[in-house]
Structures are given as structure tokens and as C-alpha cells.
Specification:
This protein has 174 residues and is of the alpha/beta class. The protein has helices at residues 27-30, 35-49, 63-73, 92-101, 139-160; strands spanning 10-15, 54-59, 79-83, 105-109, 131-134. It has one domain (10-160): 3-Layer(aba) Sandwich (Rossmann fold). It contains five helices and five strands. It is globular, with a radius of gyration of 16 Å. The structure holds ligand CA2.
């Protein structure tokens, strides 16, 4: 089932430091998929859910570059899917940028950060995020795309018409 939206939506999938190494090291923690695989699965899932929706995919190892990309997002991004990687646990600058642009964020982690070292248990993003997905590997990004489309469809249709949103069929296209 595709989701009918009143307007095209635009997502930003943002990835923090060292995630460019995905698939090449520490497969026991982060799996074997590469970041290019993650991008492909996000694009595929989005295309299945909405023909008109678009997605930018971006990774940086630099805190300031991520802050700038978040600031730019103000221009046309409806929702950010964000794995801030190690900056999750350290960056007030990234938190402030997210608060400044006031764009809904879904936080994603490949690993279950709560099963790992105590310093990974705190996130500077989680309490300002729409939600968090952790520990489901690359599937977490796919689930985040589904949640993003569903959230935006719900907020658009209720704002414009008061209508209820049909359920997104998450069983298609797996
Ligand atoms: O589980 C996640 O997605 C993390 O955001 C990954 C971060 C880590 O600092 C967070 O606590 C949890 C680390 C990303 C490093 O990615 C690598 C990928 C392959 C090989 C080495 C590092």
C-alpha cells in the first residue's frame, strides 16, 4: 500500500563519525552492511511508501559539519533520521542545532546502547527526539523511514483535514 500525502515530504538521513566504516570493521557490534547498503534500504523503503517523497543521505566525521547540515535542513527538510554515533553521548552543539531548527528527529542506533558501556547510556538527543530505535541493526533505519512517513502523514492530514491516516503496510517489500 502506498501512502497518499497532500504534499511531497523530504527526509534527511544523517550519520555521525566512523559510520563510513560500517561493514569493514567490528561486524559483531555493527553488522556487515555498509553505509551504502543503509542508504539503499532507506531509499527503497521510502519509494515503497511514497512515490513523491525524497531523501538526502549524509555522513560526516566532523561535529561542525553535522551542525551545519542540521542548520541547512531548516530550508526544506520535514524530518531528520539521525545516528549521531559517538556525538550522541557528547555533543551539546548538535543538540542545540536540533533545537534551533525545530525539525522532528528520529534517533537511530545500530547497537543497543543500553546494553553497552555506561557512557553510551546517555544521549543528548533522545529527550528532544520524536523517538529512538536502538539495537536492531540496519533494519532500524528502515523502521525509522516507516515511522517518519507515518508521522508526517498523520501530522499533515490532521492539520489539513482532520482526517485519520490509513495504516502504513509495513509488510510489503521486505
Ligand atoms: O550503535 C550505534 O549506531 C552507535 O551510534 C555507533 C557509534 C557509537 O559510538 C554509539 O555509541 C552507538 C559508533 C559508530 C562507529 O561505527 C563503526 C562502524 C564500523 C566499524 C567501526 C566503527
Amino acid at each position: 500500500m502506498s501512502l497518499t500525502m497532500n504534499r511531497a515530504i523530504h527526509l534527511l538521513v544523517l550519520n555521525g563519525p566512523n559510520l563510513n566504516l560500517l561493514g569493514s570493521r567490528e561486524p559483531e557490534t555493527y553488522g556487515r552492511v555498509t553505509l551504502a547498503d543503509v542508504e539503499r534500504l532507506c531509499r527503497q523503503r521510502l519509494a515503497q511508501l511514497s512515490a513523491s517523497a525524497t531523501l538526502d543521505f549524509f555522513q560526516s566525521n566532523h561535529e561542525g559539519v553535522l551542525v551545519e547540515r542540521i542548520q541547512q535542513a531548516r530550508e526544506r527538510v520535514d524530518l531528520i533520521i539521525f545516528n549521531p554515533a559517538a556525538f550522541t553521548h557528547t555533543s551539546i552543539a548538535i543538540r542545540d542545532a536540533l533545537l534551533a531548527v525545530n525539525i522532528p528527529v528520529i534517533e537511530v542506533h545500530l547497537s543497543n546502547i543500553y546494553k553497552r558501556e555506561p557512557f553510551r547510556h546517555h544521549s543528548y538527543v533522545s529527550d528532544i527526539a520524536l523517538g529512538q530505535i536502538a539495537g536492531l541493526g540496519a533494519d532500524g533505519y528502515r523502521f525509522a523511514v516507516e515511522a517518519a512517513v507515518h508521522h508526517l502523514a498523520a501530522s499533515t492530514s490532521s492539520a489539513c483535514t482532520g482526517a485519520t491516516v490509513p495504516a502504513v503496510d509495513t509488510t510489503q517489500g521486505r
